[in-house]
Design brief:
- Keywords: Signal, Transport.
- By secondary structure, the chain is an alpha/beta fold.
- It has 22 helices and twelve strands.
- The strands form three sheets. Strands 1, 2, 3, 6, 11 and 12 form a six-stranded mixed β-sheet that branches. The chain has a four-stranded mixed β-sheet with strand order 8-9-7-10.
- Helix 3 links the parallel strand 1 and strand 2.
- The termini are close together.
């Protein structure tokens, strides 16, 4: 059984729309921010007005728990959203730090009789598993009303299992971005690439200037899957991408070989990766970002690939988004630039008036605008005021995402069963870590990917 077959059909990617989105990003992402545009926080602390404020029930005496894998600034910023919910309703909400794989974490909490009321699930496959295990509860009438008012059909559909709506995609991500140290590029005379070949030329130019081109967080398997997905989507095309996401073609397919061989042009050059493969495999995602923007014009690396949420980590440095830290769309490997999205959905586990009210709040612009102001966050909610975002770069990314409507490709590994696409030290995460360590073994990694995928998908 394919864990997300019911939702993949809704993820239509019209080639022209993807091109429009990539083009819009290419035109806008180099916008310079002012001194007040540092992404880690805004001077504003209240929400922006987006029509009438949402009416929520009084919940004095109600206690709720919300679980998510978020840490650091991302967790701190989300807690401010929860604080606003507490202020409006009188409820008391506790954030529960979760661990990957989150389905295993939930299983232990449920077995112990302490399930959280609401959980933020980062994979459509995890939503399906939670429903299959009879943990998840459908959204009620008020949450559905708010969701349908504020979200495109595509973002609604990826939170469905069968005909029932279970998830509210509170947080989205544009995962087709490469961030760079502007001073390093300026000193090297490097330019923003639009194609993979140009990216290789830019990397060599940066290397020749004395700075290592890339920072890769190999200690975390998920960024490696994102690298693969962008190369594969652009090179193999949307149809193949969907087939591989559903495991309708094998990971031993020639298209996978071509994508891995392409990746090896960067991963296989130890001088192109900060710390080499061994160093990268010990570098976690937050450090991969901060080391790119620490050290002035002599950082440990010039570029780091990942989504818009990188801004939260840039904010922990002295760099300012739009001036010191700039960004360009992931270069096209094939005919068009890739546009890969991801997200986190609020799912109710303990059905109650409080949990339903929180899901309703998270489906509203009111909640999203609080976190939007704090930076490092992107909402698929089409009624969020763009002015809520703290800088022009984030604002343009958000506007492009909303303008794309239903036309986007969702993160492939997030569509997979969690055993393959979402478990540290196993499945695709581990296999691509092994490939980063030895990028010459393309056939061996393909065979391992296929073996792990077949076991997880059951086909």
């Amino acid at each position: 059984m394919r864990s997300t077959s019911n939702t993949i059909r809704t993820r239509r990617t019209v080639k022209a729309a993807a091109t429009v989105l990539a083009g819009a990003l290419a035109l806008s992402l180099t916008a310079c921010g002012s001194d007040d545009d540092k992404s880690g926080g805004s001077q504003n602390t209240g929400t922006k007005a987006s029509g009438d404020a949402l009416t929520l029930p009084k919940l004095d005496g109600t206690t709720l728990e919300v679980a998510a894998v978020w840490t650091g600034p991302e967790q701190a910023n989300f807690k401010k959203v929860l604080a606003e919910f507490e202020k409006r309703t009188g409820a008391k909400v506790t954030f529960v730090p979760a661990q990957d794989p989150i389905i295993n974490f939930l299983g232990s909490k449920i077995a112990g009789g302490q399930p959280p009321d609401v959980v933020m699930l980062p994979q459509p496959g995890a939503i399906k598993q939670a429903v299959d295990k009879k943990w998840a509860k459908p959204l009620g009438a008020e949450a559905l009303k708010e969701l349908r008012k504020n979200y495109s059909q595509g973002w609604q559909d990826i939170g469905k299992v069968g005909a029932e709506q279970y998830g509210v995609y509170y947080k989205a991500a544009n995962k087709s971005l490469i961030w760079y140290n502007a001073k390093v590029f300026e000193n090297a005379g490097a330019t923003e690439p639009k194609t993979w070949d140009e990216l290789l030329t830019t990397a060599q130019t940066v290397y020749d200037s004395g700075v290592t081109p890339f920072s890769i967080p190999g200690a975390d398997g998920w960024p490696l899957t994102d690298w693969f997905e962008n190369v594969y989507l652009s090179q193999a095309g949307p149809e193949k991408y969907d087939q591989l996401a559903r495991h309708e073609i094998k990971w031993t397919d020639p298209s996978v070989k071509e994508a891995l061989t392409t990746l090896a042009q960067i991963w296989g050059k130890k001088d192109y990766v900060a710390g080499g493969a061994d160093g990268a495999l010990q570098t976690q995602f937050p450090n991969a970002v901060t080391q790119t923007f620490t050290g002035g014009d002599q950082p440990k690396a010039a570029m780091v690939y990942e989504g818009d949420f990188v801004q939260v980590n840039i904010a922990q440095t002295d760099a300012k988004v739009g001036t010191d830290a700039k960004v360009f769309p992931f270069p096209k490997v094939g005919d068009t630039a890739p546009v890969v999205s991801g997200g986190d959905a609020a799912v109710i586990l303990e059905d109650s008036a409080g949990a339903q009210a929180l899901a309703t709040f998270l489906a509203s612009p009111d909640a999203a605008e609080i976190q939007a102001e704090l930076g490092g966050y992107l909402s698929p909610n089409k009624n969020v005021d763009p002015a809520a975002y703290p800088n022009d770069v984030q604002r343009k990314i958000a506007e492009a995402l909303v303008a794309a409507g239903d036309d986007f490709r969702f993160d492939m590994s997030d569509q997979a069963p969690q055993a393959f696409g979402g478990t540290p030290g196993k499945g695709e995460w581990k296999d691509l870590q092994d490939f980063l360590k030895n990028p010459t073994d393309v056939a061996g990694i393909q065979a391992k990917l296929e073996s792990d995928a077949a076991a997880a998908y059951g086909n």
